[in-house]
Amino acid sequence: MRVEWRRLRAGELDHELIWLAVTVGAALLATTWLTLRLPWPTCTFRSLTGLPCVTCGATRASLSFFHGHLGAALHFNPLVFVGLCAIALFDLYAVLALTTGARRVRMSFPKTGTRKVALACVLIAGAGNWIYLLRAHL
Description:
By secondary structure, the protein is mainly alpha-helical. Helices cover 66% and strands 7% of the residues.
């Protein structure tokens, strides 16, 4: 994996703007959903098997996170908690990069082996999270 700090090139996708808009839009959609008191999402996997899926507790973790109850958010779903922390840090970086015109972080995976390692890390994190949920919430 190669990481570099550089200016945005002409014609290059502005990932900071795109992903900041996506996360702010998702937060607005979730806030609207809760304000309108629409039904909570249910887990089909849990309904069918009685076991939590890899994303079970994501809604409760998100609500706890945004209310500042970080320990509860971590308990409900550790992987979602880590993801929300990463999104918060990225959004802060994106706002700073967009407002100051600073250099941007760009990562590339020039070797196929590196991509496989990254994918393996994601799969291991998902499996570890699921094991935690199975042990903690049965």
